[in-house]
Amino acid sequence: MKARILICDDEEGIRRYLQKMFLAKEYDVETFADGTSLLARIEGGTEGDADILLQDVRMPDMDGIEVLKRVKKLRPAMPVVVMTAFGTIDAAVEAIKLGAYDYVTKPFPKEKILGLMENALQLDLLMKENRVLKEELSRPDIPDNIVFTSAKFREVYDLTVQVAGSDANILVLGESGTGKELIAGAIHVNSQRKGRRFLSINCAALSDTLLESQLFGHVRGAFTGAITTQKGLLEEADGGTLFLDEIGDVSAAVQAKLLRVIQEREFIPVGATKPKSVDIRFVAATNKDLAKEVAAGRFREDLYYRLNVITIALPPLRERREDIEPLAMHFLAKYARRIRKNIRGFTPEALQSLQGYRWPGNVRELENVVERAAILTRGDLVTPEVLPIRPREDAPLLRPDNLLVSLEEMEREHIERVLRQTGFHKSRTAEILGISRKTLDRKIVEYALAIPGQGISGTLDD
């Protein structure tokens, strides 16, 4: 499809000459005799419905430079070529400074104006392709399907789709590894914002200073090492969705700043003085009981109600066992394809082992187990021997009355088990458990867990 050219000049002869020239090249052409009608056309149109503007610097109703300023504000990416007569070169130079692509002096040869417009359109096409490519490269892998067969998760998914169409902020609750980010992605792709960006941040994984910088961005010189101005996720997610994972671990200071963003729809980058306006849909998630956190004074009540307009509670995997087999098959196909193995499925004994396990790490733990099994499987079926779940671990966590243990003891056993399965690789362990490295280190000290100098994997990360 040929480009659409807008021509604005108060001389009818120039408009007819240019229109005839461009129509002969099979361009779509619209002409305007003054700046007012041109601006009305651009304001009433949509982004991308016109590809380039050829505009005179002298207008009968308003200054051509003023017209250019308004055009660039409305369509900053649209290239503008200005036409100037002898004696108005200074105005043309000013137009270039304001963002015009180039200028041409009247009277101009046919070949010159055609060549200039072709070059401007080609550059515009390359810029558009570059913007699309950057958008694709920076966009996370947002899920377009969720694997389940259980009626329990069907209720969750139906609610997700139902509330996605609104613009309300949503709080997703659930244990670590239940798929909270997956649900946040499903909310985005089923919303009116699906054409814009979906960004996420793990609030528990960053210090307060780094979290604030990542969210709000900073200006050059805001702190030591800030050698350039950096956009934050709030600005990058403008018009889209921002997923705040582990919101329950955010400090009081950052909570206050987030509340301002949600209430006022504006924020101030670190080191700046002027606020920036944003339009963002927030989806937050936590494995904590935020109501209890509010009662204990660790989480702001006003922020809680701002985020908790709608709540989606995810059931743990042990409460939707019908989903274990389809999820396991999904992960097996994914990792078998990645490592180029032909693995058809699981033996009945392996499936029984998967079904009998309690999955304290939920879907994330299941994925980790299947990934390991795919790597170790030699035939075309996964057997129980390559599943890193032992008979003792397969047994229900509710033991005989005389062997009941505390929740604290179960947590200690699970952390130790995952540490051993990952070869005491702390980052991988924290990822499986759905906690930050800082939280894992604290738990290791709290439970006095022994960490050998060298793990099964042969390396340790500190």
Automatic annotation (TrEMBL):
The modification 4-aspartylphosphate is found at D56. One of its GO terms (biological process) is phosphorelay signal transduction system. The keyword Transcription regulation applies. Its main location: cytoplasm. GO terms for cellular component: cytoplasm. Keywords: Activator, ATP-binding, Cytoplasm, DNA-binding, Nitrogen fixation, Nucleotide-binding, Phosphoprotein, Repressor, Transcription, Transcription regulation, Two-component regulatory system. Signal peptide: none annotated. InterPro entries: AAA+_ATPase, AAA_lid_NorR, CheY-like_superfamily, Homeodomain-like_sf, HTH_Fis, P-loop_NTPase, Sig_transdc_resp-reg_receiver, Sigma_54_int. Residues 146-375 form the Sigma-54 factor interaction domain. This is DNA-binding transcriptional regulator NtrC. It comes from Geobacter metallireducens (strain ATCC 53774 / DSM 7210 / GS-15).
